[in-house]
Amino acid sequence: MRITDIREATAAIGSEMSNAFIDFSQMTISVVAVASDTIRNGKPVTGYGFCSNGRYAQGGILRERLIPRIEAADAADLLDQDGRNFAPCKIRQVMLSNEKPGGHGDRAVAASAVDMAVWDLVAKLEEKPLWRVLSERFNGGAHDEQVLVYPGGGYYYPGKGLERLREEMRGYHDQGYKAVKMKIGAASLAEDLARIEAVIDEIGSGGDLAVDANGRFDLSRALAYGEAMGDYGLFWFEEPGDPLDYALNAELAAAYPGAIATGENLFSVQDARNLARHGGMRPDIDWMQFDPALCYGLTEYLDIVETLEGLGWPRRRHIPHGGHQLALATAAGLQLGGSESYPGVFQPFGGFADDTVVESGMAEPGEYIGIGMEAKAAMFTEIQRLVGA
Prior knowledge:
Helix content: 25-40%
Shape: globular
Distance between the termini: 19 Å
CATH topology of the largest domain: TIM Barrel
Strand order of the largest sheet: 5-6-7-8-9
Structural class: alpha/beta
Largest sheet: 5 strands, parallel
Radius of gyration: 20 Å
Number of helices: 12
């Protein structure tokens, strides 16, 4: 068994929307296909992957470093102990060989796209859904039939006022979502409070609303928002300051009575360990949001979950960022706290399979073989256009 081809391409997911830190008009992602020499139905069994939104495509790193290392490796060095399937941990080791420690940024994103494709391939070769493979290998065979899901939305758009924000959130409820998320931090505190209150009025409960500052605030502004929002009883206050400013996060956690969520822009086991040790995060109320399509991939994400378990963090306090089928499968197979969803943004890559039904804020992972890329028609058509055989 061997890998016969690895292809990468850049996909555009640009939009006029923005959060508190960036606009998405030039946003891109990397798409990867990993083909094997196993033939089924006249075609090579192939895994597909992409990196999550927010960090841009990583074509140079993929073409110049990561992919050539995998292609140059002995086939046996990429296989599991029985030689019957590929070993994601070994492939990660090969593609990251000769890389210095630290600086977990763009190369983590590049590796994630490859790693997603590898796990898709592994599950396809086993002829099982990825969530079932994860359940059997890392969760004693247990899994969740349904997963809590929430839509990432509430972005700033030119000319978008309170009524359009209300309409957006009402639309998510009509789609079956219960908890929703909106952006804050790109307006004044008074304007954001008006936006928050409008959404709470629309959905009926602050406990079903998460707010996301995307790392915008310094300490004084984070504390001011925390104090102003303290009585809303929000689902969580997400990424209030720079993700590496653990002191800011810890001081806010000491002052803010509600839940804090962060981690999507931290990309390694080392980052996760430092957040748990120094960020003031509370395992009984706060949320870890590491993204299996940004943090060197699902392989590293599994190490992060295990590491944080050793530091007292239950799996149910993890809700992976990303809003795609990989995050949903990971949450179901490992019995995490839930998964983000992108039903309306970052298309065609955002969101779940076309036939996924969201009811009372819960979704089933589906019985798709592999991750389920093929079950999201518009996305898979674009993947095939970019990296198809």
